[in-house]
Write a structure and sequence with these properties.
The chain is 46% helix and 14% strand. The chain is of the alpha/beta class.
């Protein structure tokens, strides 16, 4: 026997890749293993493992199964590239962010999707990387800040995670930062609350929790910011403010409060806002903004400062300064030029379409002109739109509004050269994670159509995902026409007792609508006009949503939680439109002396449909503490002492409207729920 034959066989087999074992191996250097360790652990898939090697790219030859080599090359910090073919990919990044983006994109090529901080879609089998993801250089469209503003002034999921010390909360905060990075973000901020001033004993534990969050973010290449208010007089939601009272010298108190908030916390930036509905005298505003900026630089030299330009087309917010008549919030342009203005819009409205009289704006034309003017002059500016409004408008109705994604795409397509695009986020249940994930991804790589990013996100579900994405696109387009163009948003939304009180005082946030008693008191001509302008269009929209809901029901969701949530979201939104149409149709019938029986019965039927949907979905909420989201009472640091989905869980807005209409048409005197506080 040839004594060399065994040796030759050893050499041959050693040079061949190991057979596909159905797993994914991520080859990394020791330094990069620490960078991706938590992100891989949060996926929760035992099929994924890491192997630390000196030369990750060379290690790819040792496997035939799914594998990724994470390597650094010469490109910008958050730029990346995928090379390779099939199930063996090289993920190349210029820095910490680029390498992470490349790895997560590689896993997406295998079929993974990162839909929620507490949930990753894991494919049953790994797909081969599509050719359009390979051999292409990826670089960010929005260069500086692509991020999320977690509105912790609302009792959403993020409140506990980012503000309340605790191991589970810290894990939630880390998962949120990981979700941000996996969807190509690089910046996260949250609102400061005033409990750490009112209860100083809580500040040390809060500080340790905050520093653990910012350290984690920085270790993964993510910058952090904190949002605070300047004036206590306009502070309606327990925000952390710098000036509580009018005094001769506000600077010492500003600095004291800034030290409490910033010393040792690790924030990179500060987002200064000025409240809603109320304004200060213009000269005082400019002076104290400048004083605040100077104080910030003394307390934390080099801190970046942004200021929010809010909305509110009210007479009391129109001021004259330097011979110019302008909205109060635009006074920021006269303050220190080191402050970067962030232009805000609300709800699912955008800078280019009708604004439906949200905050009494027909459109946000002043805001559009300002941001476009700064872009044309190559001056720094950011855009700060919303992904959910929360209060009596969308997620707590509940209703699923993918028109949010369409509006965010509309703005991004036209705003070229933005420094910052940070999304104002108010919750992730009922499909609202989609707005955040989609917008983060569009910030990095703009798509030709808004539906393209939805197709990409649902691509991990194969044929089912393609059907789901098509359904979402048609739903969003229908909502754009009906809710924005035809101004039906006020009817899909709800109203609470405070909104009614604001109506009396001429203060409007969300679009207004006539109350049922007001409609009944109109003249016949006025009612006929309303029936044609509103009620007939509500009927059309309810019918098209019902057809989409029937399609959603036919999706083979099985036990897939993402597809089940989509089904329930479309179905409850359709039920909401049928219900509110029936409520207004019953009111018209009553005013015209006709029977209301059928309309009241239809509304009750849709209310029961919604109750069944809400009951089923409550068991599927993504958050690990789902009951906290629907708590009827809950002690927390915000103004709102309950879970943010309380009204969604009880369908309070629906019940309120039902009582109002039945009191009117049946001449009852039942107690009308307030649906607030």
């Amino acid at each position: 026997m040839n004594k060399l034959l065994p040796l030759c066989l050893v050499v041959v087999f050693a040079s061949c890749p190991a057979p596909d074992d159905g797993n994914v191996v991520v080859f990394v250097t020791a330094e990069d293993e620490a960078l991706v360790r938590d992100g891989l652990a949060f996926i929760g898939d035992a099929r994924i493992s890491t192997k630390v090697v000196a030369r990750p790219a060379d290690a790819l030859t040792t496997r035939s199964g799914a594998s990724v080599a994470v390597v650094q090359d010469e490109r910008c910090d958050d730029c990346y590239r995928l090379d390779g073919s099939g199930l063996r990919l090289t993920a190349k990044g210029g820095g910490a962010l680029g390498k992470q983006y490349a790895l997560w994109h590689s896993l997406e090529a295998f079929g993974f999707r990162f839909t929620h901080p507490w949930y990753t879609h894991k494919p049953a089998t790994f797909t081969r990387a599509p050719g359009d993801a390979l051999g292409k250089d990826f670089s960010p469209s929005v260069k500086k800040r692509r991020g999320l503003h977690l509105h912790t002034l609302h009792p959403t999921e993020s409140l506990a995670d980012f503000w309340v010390p605790g191991d589970k909360n810290l894990e939630g905060a880390k998962r949120t930062i990981d979700f941000l990075v996996k969807n190509r973000g690089n910046y996260i901020q949250w609102c400061a609350l005033d409990d750490i001033v009112k209860e100083p004993a809580t500040q040390p534990a809060w500080l340790a929790h905050t520093r653990a969050i910012t350290d984690f973010a920085h270790a993964h290449g993510v910058k952090t910011g904190v949002a605070l208010q300047l004036f206590g007089q306009a502070n309606l939601q327990n925000a952390y403010d710098l000036i509580d009272h009018d005094t001769a010298d506000v600077v010492p108190e500003m600095e004291r409060r800034l030290h409490t908030l910033l010393d040792g916390a690790g924030f990179d930036a500060l987002n200064l806002s000025f409240g809603e509905f109320f304004g200060a005298e213009p000269a005082r505003f400019v002076q104290e903004v400048d004083q605040a900026y100077a104080a910030m630089q003394r307390v934390q030299p080099g801190a970046e400062v942004m200021a929010t330009i809010h909305v509110g087309n009210y007479d009391n917010l129109r001021v004259t300064y330097m011979n110019e008549r302008l909205l109060y919030y635009f006074l920021i342009k006269f303050a220190n030029p080191g402050i970067v203005p962030w232009v805000h819009t609300t709800m699912f409205y955008n800078l280019y379409d009708d604004a439906g009289l949200a905050y009494l704006h027909d459109e946000f034309d002043e805001h559009r002109a300002y941001i476009e003017g700064r872009l044309s002059a190559s001056q720094p500016v950011g855009y700060f739109p919303e992904s959910a409004y929360w209060i009596a408008f969308d997620i707590n109705i509940p209703a699923f509004f993918p028109v949010y994604v369409k509006s965010r795409h509309t703005d991004l397509q036209r705003l070229n050269g933005l420094d910052d695009h940070v999304l104002f986020s108010s919750g992730w249940e009922w499909g609202y994670w989609l707005t955040d994930a989609a917008t983060l991804r569009m910030n990095y790589a703009r798509t030709a159509e808004w539906s393209d990013v939805v197709k990409d996100i649902y691509g991990g579900w194969g044929e089912k995902g393609a059907k789901a994405a098509d359904l979402i696109a048609r739903l969003g387009e229908a909502q754009h026409r009906a809710l924005i163009v035809e101004r039906l948003a006020a009817y899909a939304a709800g109203r609470d007792q405070i909104i009614d009180a604001g109506d009396v005082m001429g203060i409007f946030s969300q679009p207004d609508r006539p109350e049922f008693a007001e409609l009944a008191a109109m003249t016949r001509v006025q009612r006929d006009e309303f029936a044609a302008r509103v009620v007939a269009k509500l009927e059309v929209h309810a019918a098209e949503l019902t057809a989409l809901a029937n399609e959603a029901t036919e999706l083979d969701a099985g036990d897939d939680e993402v597809l089940l949530e989509l089904q329930q979201g479309v179905k409850v939104t359709a039920a909401r439109l049928r219900f509110i149409h029936a409520m207004y149709a019953a009111t018209l019938a009553f005013a015209d002396g006709q029977s209301t029986t059928e309309w009241l019965a239809r509304a009750d039927g849709d209310l029961e449909v919604a109750r069944a949907i809400v009951s089923a979905q409550r068991r599927r909420y993504w958050d690990p503490e789902p009951l906290s989201l629907v708590a009827t009472t809950q002690k927390n640091a915000t103004f709102y002492q309950y879970g943010y989905l309380r009204e969604a869980d009880t369908l309070c807005f629906w019940v309120r409207e039902r009582v109002q209409v039945r009191n009117l048409v049946l001449r009852r005197t039942d107690l009308v729920p307030g649906c607030v506080l």
